[in-house]
Design a protein that fits this description.
- The protein is an alpha/beta fold and 616 residues long.
- It is 28% helix and 18% strand.
- The chain has 16 helices and 21 strands.
- Strands 1, 2, 3, 4, 5, 6 and 19 form a seven-stranded mixed sheet that branches.
- Strand 11 and strand 12 form a beta hairpin.
- Helix 1 runs antiparallel to helix 9.
- The longest helix is centred in the middle third of the chain and has 24 residues.
Amino acid sequence: MRTFSLLLFVASLISAAFAQSADEGSVRMYDVAVYGGTPGGIAAAVAAGRAGHSVLLIEPTTRIGGMMTNGLSHSDFRSFEALSGFFLEFTQAVEAYYIDRYGADSRQARESFRGAFGEPSVNLVVFERMLAAEATVEVLKGARLDEVETTAFDRGRRRLVAAVLAVREGGQRRVEARQFIDASYEGDLMAAAGEHFHVGRESRAQYDEPLAGNAKGQADGQVQGYNLRLIMTEREDNKIMPVMPAGYRREHFAGVLPLFAEGRLRRVFSSGHDGIYRAHIPLLPNEKADVNDTPRSPARLSLPELNDDYPTADLRRRAQIVEEHRYHNVGLLYFLQNDAEVPPHIQEDARNWGWCRDEFVETGGIPEQLYIREARRLVGQYVFTAKDTRTAIGDVRAVLRPDAIAIGDYIHNCHGTGRVGTRFDGRHEGEFYENVQPYQISYGVIVPQRTENLLVPVACSASHFGFNALRLESIWCSLGQAAGWAAHLAITREKPVQEVSVPDLQLLLHSQRSATLYVSDIAPDSPHFAAVQWFGLRGAFHGLSPTAEVIRPKTIVGQYNEAFPRHDANLAAALDPVIEARWAAMLPEGVSPPVGAKTREEWLGFAHATIISLNP
């Protein structure tokens, strides 16, 4: 076992920097305090700021943006029709950045993939601009949660009063807020508040999920594997070659050689499954690649056997786990680029790539943060499971969730939770990839059971299997945006988050162009968007394609595809009497059905205008 003397020395310095001090610093009451400058946290802060509230966004590291500014630039979604609200606004701002800098017809603008493929440095600029545009939002970096103060009530509920932060400069800062949002990947604030959470896999029987649990269907403490998301390039004028990591020993990596000799691996970098470092396609602007763990490869960047205790570990242990991953991800590439026993053609392939000179300058071209795919998961008012992505009976759509605050369009995706055998002579256990149609996400997944002024949009309430359809930055942005507006309602109406009016929250989200149902032909900027979304929550578009067969959309490139067939509103269609009667039954009491409408568009437009006039 390698020693971590250097690491432990660094960790001791970090601990000393975070040590308690007699100087408590100034105390200020905020309307909303958001812990975690992840994309979901930024979305929450911006939403609360736009609602007119004073907001403090707290980020423990030196860089806001979470994984989207730490290497995850190949945004995970399937169809552009699924993007709405804050995340869509972000991608449009990224695309605008490339157009402004390089021109509308530039290669960089095209390769930004409508703004979904921003370089980390560009994503950072855009996030910072979005936050700076909100005058009531303050950002605090380098501040890590130390403890919380709570007040308990007789009915079993509690409120968060303050968060005590250990600041990087030394000492503490006490932050009071009316509402708190835990947007950290780890769920640290939620756990400190005393909320119930789960780590690891549930049994198959617990939520009736066929792919849950271990090989015997039993629960265990395994969480999905982590790795660095490396940003790399082949451009000689921007390439930095990796250097030997501290503590390097070639015997830690020599076991990869037989995999090439046996033909089980053919390349080092590949967009497929025949390599180790997965260079996602299409490439990012300026000839960069988002490099990830390769699913089902015999040699992996993720190390699920190492990270099971990370979610609940202290700062020192987490630092050790991060360092071991960094050592493996960097050391393996250094070995393949430099070791004399590596076959020449393999070494040449490895040496084609290096870190980017203009990314992660402060950390030598390597991201600061590790890709924490899964840590703690809240056990909240509602637990998102496999049943939430199942197809509705006799329909192409997923089951209807009238209390939805967001949508998702991806797959259940797990890179593995454990390892059978060695790193170079084994396989990942618990790996799965299951296709589903677009789905809705209920408000209860971000709502804790006990704490009245806390929302959890990132380490949200889901089973292990369910979480692996939610753990995407685009979805976390939607949940974060919803959390920001839910905090607004809780403040203005003096209600616990458990009692926030979901219909009122949905109206706010629709006004912000955030979708609660996947509708392929009505974009967020459509004048009909809010009407379609409102009626969609009531089942207006379920059952319009009465078939159990889900037709897979055509592929655009890589994991990205065209819109899902038969998920459209088709507003130009003539108003069928059966549909008219069905839709009329969805109207609130006191609202009369429109008279004389000839198309779906006319009927929905008239009806929704009446509803909104009654709910300004």
